[in-house]
Amino acid sequence: MSISMYLASGQPTIRTLTNLRAILEKAAAHAEAREIDPSVLVNARLYPDMLPLSAQVQIATDNAKGSVSRLAGLEPPKYEDNETTLAELVARLDKTIALLKTFRPEQIDGSEDKTITLKVPNRTLTFKGMPYLLEYALPNIYFHVVTAYAILRHNGVELGKMDYMGKPA
Amino acid sequence: MSISMYLASGQPTIRTLTNLRAILEKAAAHAEAREIDPSVLVNARLYPDMLPLSAQVQIATDNAKGSVSRLAGLEPPKYEDNETTLAELVARLDKTIALLKTFRPEQIDGSEDKTITLKVPNRTLTFKGMPYLLEYALPNIYFHVVTAYAILRHNGVELGKMDYMGKPA
Predict the structure, then answer these.
(1) Do residue B169 and residue A127 have CB atoms under 8 angstroms apart?
(2) ipTM over 0.90
């Protein structure tokens, strides 16, 4: 089977969000076992001016739904960014994974040269579909997933790289 | 231009290692300006049983040279893992980037179903080329690049996500 925009986008994204979901469940079990107020982990950060765990999960899912939707020529759905618990962050991941699973190859394939525009603070970025996926969206998703992992690991949740990687395909 | 195994492997990998190189240079300048012994950053980690910055850079480059070499059917070169300074880690990145730039599309394209085997502690993993790239190698590279960033950010080096992302393509 030849690589395609569909295979390079939805599948790895679903995979990393699914692994992040399991990581958050481990964090919830860790907090419960040690009687840690779960909001401590939701609000944890690696440095005072870095974003907390909740925002890392929110932005990872924003990039996930945003990238696949935009490659398909659709407006990504808006989420509220109002999660305050690990369970709510897990629900956000579930909602995003369910959305990603609705996309079909014919919606994404052939989007290599599609013009993608997205507004970021203070400017509008314009890409072609392939560099958008490979050099912007995927690195962005991994950035926030790994940062979420790092925040939890730094806070003593017992995680290893295999929790992030998931089972070999 | 259609997405290909070549375009999905070498180019994003070169990009993220190049950005990591610039991040290490900022870390070196930060340490020098504040008279921090640079070995402090090289040996910094986010948790006592996590690997330090030096190992994050080593493993990121191992995965980078390993993945592209294996997709091309070549044995990846062995590096010594003896870097003890930021300058030596930058040199390792340079060596890896230079290697990645030698690969040509015809060496990598069509490797979707190529059997890839790699030894990890205690077992041998077997993949087909495409899931190896998309679900193992790239997430692995990003894991270590982002962890390196997180270690430096946590230690007060003034970095932002754009240092990790690099300039828009």
Answers:
(1) yes
(2) yes
